Amino acid sequence: MGMTLDPLADRAVYKQLSDIVGAAIESGEYQPGTLIPSESMLMARHGVARNTVRLAMGVLRDQGLVVTRHGRGTFVRGGEHDEDHDQPSTSRSRTANSSGLPA
Amino acid sequence: MGMTLDPLADRAVYKQLSDIVGAAIESGEYQPGTLIPSESMLMARHGVARNTVRLAMGVLRDQGLVVTRHGRGTFVRGGEHDEDHDQPSTSRSRTANSSGLPA
DNA sequence: CGCCATTTGTACGTATGTATG
DNA sequence: TCATACATACGTACAAATGGC
What we know:
The structure is a homodimer.
Chain A: H1 13-26, H2 39-46, H3 50-62, E1 66-69, E2 73-76
Antiparallel strand pairs in A: 1-2
Helix pairs in contact in A: 1-3, 2-3
The structure holds a DNA duplex.
């Protein structure tokens, strides 16, 4: 279960990380509407800098797989029950599948 | 024309910078298909870190205003003559107005 | 209410790699 | 070969939001 990062690989580490977390999401390991590990957690677990983690999260965000909230964390998309409280504008004018997962 | 950045403002510096450059693009100061100032230039001109410049460029990229090419620079979108040489996949599955400018 | 821990946001610095011309 | 420009990755620090107490 612990896909490891390879700094020597052709693929950038942050992309490898986004692949890993993204796969974990699609595999159901991280359920829709729930929080994925915090940046600190991911840093510790994978031995990378925060920057790298944030870049990876950025990829997942662009893919519409997750949504990040200041002070709260990063949630797996698709929690239609909406653990949202208010928020001025949830959508971000992205291609992003507002329904949640792509397939 | 020299809109200055205000580190004390409510709006994040990188967002202020994206506003400035974005406005310069829409005002025609930076013509479609041409290069905008390099990261080094923007750093020097505005007195900010490279990271900040890159964040600003990221905003413009998300807005579909510019396109960045490794080793080349960041171009104002709308150069339909296509200064492209080959490239595996130009689009990035973004909302991005493939035609160029939003309006 | 204030206090505090956690978490993301912003901004800086440095180094090295890769692409282009 | 070389200079320029962007890409990746590490580090630090402080701000702001959140939520439990």
